[in-house]
Amino acid sequence: MIPTVVITPRGEERLRSGHPWIYRADVTDVRAEPGDVVAVRSARSRALGLALYSSRSQIAIRMLAFGHGEPAVDALVRQRIDTAIAFRRSLAIDATACRLVHGEADLLPSLIVDRYGDYLVVQALSQGMDRLMPTIVDMLGDLVHPRGILARNDPRSRLLEGLEQRVEVLAGEVPDMVRVTEHGIEYEVDLRQGQKTGLFLDQRENREAAARYAHGRSLDCFSYHGGFALTMARRCQETIAYDISEDAVARVRANALRNGVAIDARIGNVFDELRGLERLGERFDTIVLDPPAFAKSKSAIAKATSGYKEINLRALKLLNPGGTLVTCSCSYNVNEAMFAEIVYEASVDARAHVTVVEKRMQGRDHPVLLGVPETYYLKCLILRKVA
Ligand code: SAH
What residues does each domain of the chain span? Predict the structure, then answer.
């Protein structure tokens, strides 16, 4: 008999609204081991679907399939992965690195698969996905034929699942550095130690969009390996990039050299540096703000709001009339409306008249699942300072 979990009417309501998660408080009876694939039933024993069960996380249930009928798990997962990959192919992405599987949005909750050229990086972020990993590695081998598959199972969220943090090669071989291209720009990526799975793939389309407006003197704040700076430098007279991490700045310099563009990459805290540039009376025509998530939890929203406002205010002051500000937030706790309000308040304080030229989000290979706000985390506004 397949392991079973019974949920409350409130949990059932949540499933009907399309949400794939059931919290522990809505689970009434568990006949399952940690990480089992379970049949989910209503209080009246109606079959509601198939899910991954976690014994530790507040998210006790992550749905794999909705409704009655209990499909074979392996066939279901294989078909989901196949569909996810086919969708990415259909996007005709101009890059050799992209996300192939984006968890909940591909109905494969807590599974991430990123492609970097001939290599794949996977993350299993729940007990259930962790258990399925050997099967998934075989399927990926069959479907993609990568030279190697690396598990970047080091996100802290794994601790909430009672899983260890581990980086390991699961198949084939994975070199220390992998070369990928994005819109004609070449990057060397450290899959084992880079942030996320190596690069910020979710910003690829925003980097391309920013390049379309880049002109004059440009400034890339929170540059990481120089994604925005590299695309802008091809179109600008001068490009300056700031990051607080010495390693990241070294990587920006190496990437600039590799791609034959000039970037003045500097180590610095953006909060201090923007103030310093203002004191010196410097001006720019294009500025990018792509900070890390300031609001990692609800309790951090107030502090995050003042952080976002501060950098946007300073950037708008540094911008010449006619200049472009590309401003991002990847905190899902600060939603689109909140972020727009913060940026508006910054413009008032900067005494700038600003138009919204584009409202953007994470790239199409990281789609948002409607009804699941957690999957809409990256906001990107392209603004023009009119005067
Ligand atoms: N724009 C990048 C991704 C930025 S990730 C891209 O497209 O690839 C955020 C970066 O901000 C990280 O590299 C981190 O080192 C840096 N960072 C965090 N806090 C900072 C601060 N106060 N000042 C400068 N950089 C900071």
Answer: 4-66, 73-179, 200-385
